[in-house]
Write a structure and sequence with these properties.
Layout: E1 7-8, E2 19-20, H1 27-35, H2 40-46, H3 52-67
Antiparallel strand pairs: 1-2
């Protein structure tokens, strides 16, 4: 899954937040639904314009952001 095929970042849509292409549904919103425990089937039922691959693209987008995150250990006080 390549998130770039399904996720758009356009300053004219939701102030540049990443959204599923062709929608105003942000990656943040959809990840929030998943984090709240919404089943995939319920999300797809409530948002019929979405496909399973759109949800997978949201997860892949988040995975890529986290993978490039740098962490630095701090000594305990």
């Amino acid at each position: 899954m390549n998130w770039r095929e399904r996720i758009a970042i356009d300053p004219g849509i939701l102030v540049g937040k990443p959204v599923v292409q062709g929608t105003r549904l942000s990656v943040e919103f959809l990840l929030g639904l998943l984090a709240q425990g919404w089943p995939e089937s319920e999300i797809l039922r409530n948002y019929p314009g979405l496909a399973r691959d759109d949800l997978l693209a949201c997860l892949d987008y988040a995975r890529e952001l986290i993978s490039s995150e740098e962490t630095y250990p701090f000594p305990a006080a």
